[in-house]
Amino acid sequence: MTDAVERPEACDAEVDASGLNCPLPLLKAKLELNRLTSGSVLKVISTDAGSQRDFRTFAKLAGHTLLHEEVQAGVYLYWLRKA
Fold this sequence. Notes:
The protein is of the alpha+beta class and 83 residues long. The chain has two helices and four strands.
């Protein structure tokens, strides 16, 4: 886990990438982030275990903030704040 904070109460948009393998969850998230304004929160749902590494690295390199991540029975949840 990263230095992420508690799970945000709300999000501005949500991407359900369940059943998709790398790199599709990240690509879908990038497309949705492009539509959002700075400061917006995006929730991403993925079932790809490799998405943990992908989203941590992407947030760091792109300047977004990974607010929170969690795993629930093989489902990976991420909350990103757009830079």
